[in-house]
Amino acid sequence: MLLDILIPIAIILGVMLLFLVGFILLKTALFSPAQKEVKPRDFPEVDSQSVAERLGLAVQFKTISHHDPSKIDANAFLGLHRLFKTLYPQVHDKLKVETVNDYSLLYTWEGKNPDLKPVMLISHLDVVPADEGEDSGWTHPPFSGEIADGYVWGRGTMDIKNGVIGVLEAVEYLLKNEFQPERTVYLGFGHDEEVSGNNGAKAIVALLESRGVELGSVLDEGGGVIA
């Protein structure tokens, strides 16, 4: 007798539960948050050809990293430093620039509000070796920095002198427009990321730590975006 009563109740409860789950799933699928009216932003016009040319110049420096620091081509790294100073005069005039372990670079862009934790943009100057022989398979020589068919060709265009140039281009533009960030911004460019980063990125970290710097966020390289 009791079983005859419980079975219908269980069936009813089961149907109600399924209905509730289905209702929740439907509402979730159809949910659309209210959209705020946002004024379209005006993005700065960029002379992509001149940016490509500057990236091409950077690629021409054979900044190949080695596990043995004595095998590093100092002229390549120091030449790249000089190129940056020439191409980005505002950056080198208004930011504090430090060389770490001879070849890595640390830039400090002072912010308006010292109470805010600083942020850091990082990338690296070094690249891996490239076969420069005629049968290497390169469409254009790996350290030519040639611009052809709508691309900049060479070692470092994707990993990751494009990141270094992109950061410097942005900061140079902002400085020319008299922009000052609210919080301090650090730019850190190591010279041995491809072989561990012990003398580059880690040395920069140790230097900032010795100064009591506590970062709010760090932005490093990401994957490539291919249209």
Q: Give the overall form.
A: elongated
Structural class estimated from helices and strands: alpha/beta
How is the main sheet built? Answer: 5 strands, mixed
Strand percent estimate: 5-15%
Lateral arrangement of strands in the main beta sheet: 1-2-6-3-7
Order of helices and strands: HHHHEEEEEHEHE
How many helices?
6
How far the N terminus sits from the C terminus, by CA atoms, comes to 70 Å
Mean pLDDT: 91
Level of helix content?
A: 25-40%
| Number of extended strands | 7
Low-pLDDT windows of residues: none
User: What is the C-alpha radius of gyration, as a whole number of Å?
Assistant: 27 Å
Summarize the structure in words.
The protein is an alpha/beta fold. It is built from 6 helices and 7 strands. The chain has helices at 2-30, 48-59, 74-87, 89-94, 161-176, 201-210; strands spanning 96-100, 104-109, 119-124, 147-148, 151-152, 185-190, 217-219. The strands form 2 sheets. It has a 5-stranded mixed β-sheet, with helices on both faces. β4 and β5 form a beta hairpin. It is elongated, with a radius of gyration of 27 Å. The termini are far apart.
Please specify the SSE layout and strand pairing.
Layout: H1 2-30, H2 48-59, H3 74-87, H4 89-94, E1 96-100, E2 104-109, E3 119-124, E4 147-148, E5 151-152, H5 161-176, E6 185-190, H6 201-210, E7 217-219
Parallel strand pairs: 3-6, 3-7
Antiparallel strand pairs: 1-2, 2-6, 4-5
Helix pairs in contact: 2-5
Using brief descriptors, characterize the structure shown.
227 residues, alpha/beta, five-stranded mixed β-sheet, two-stranded antiparallel ribbon, 6 helices, 7 strands, elongated
